[in-house]
């Protein structure tokens, strides 16, 4: 998928702010993340953050990325004319998910399993 490291950093920053107890930081970040669901590539960005074990990405942000990904699958994965998730992105996400099957963080692993189940429900057997 075509996204930049600046995109990853921006979404990661929003996820970290969405975890803040300071409402003045949290609410705008949550709104921006919700708005991001309508952008092509958003699922891929969330998946990359979820997969990141980089020291700069804390596990709470990775977990929140997995929750947003799971919820975004519910809203955007079905075949619709206005869906922001392209067939190319769906293929990328399906392949990348299987690479992450050995996630060590149990909270992220649970969300990962739910994402796989939801996608399988929509795509299996025709697409996956």
UniProtKB/TrEMBL annotation:
Q: What InterPro entries does the annotation carry?
A: ARM-like (IPR011989), ARM-type_fold (IPR016024), Importin-beta_N (IPR001494)
Under what name is this protein listed? Importin N-terminal domain-containing protein
Annotated GO biological processes are: protein import into nucleus
Q: Which GO terms describe its cellular component?
A: cytosol; nuclear envelope
Query: Origin organism of this chain?
Result: Adiantum capillus-veneris
Q: What one GO molecular function would you report for this record?
A: small GTPase binding
Q: Which domain of life is it from?
A: Eukaryota
Q: Taxonomic lineage per UniProt?
A: Eukaryota, Viridiplantae, Streptophyta, Embryophyta, Tracheophyta
Importin N-terminal domain residues: 29-103
Which keywords fit this entry according to its UniProt record? Nucleus, Transport
| Location of this chain's protein in the cell | Nucleus
Which Pfam families does the record match to this protein?
Answer: IBN_N
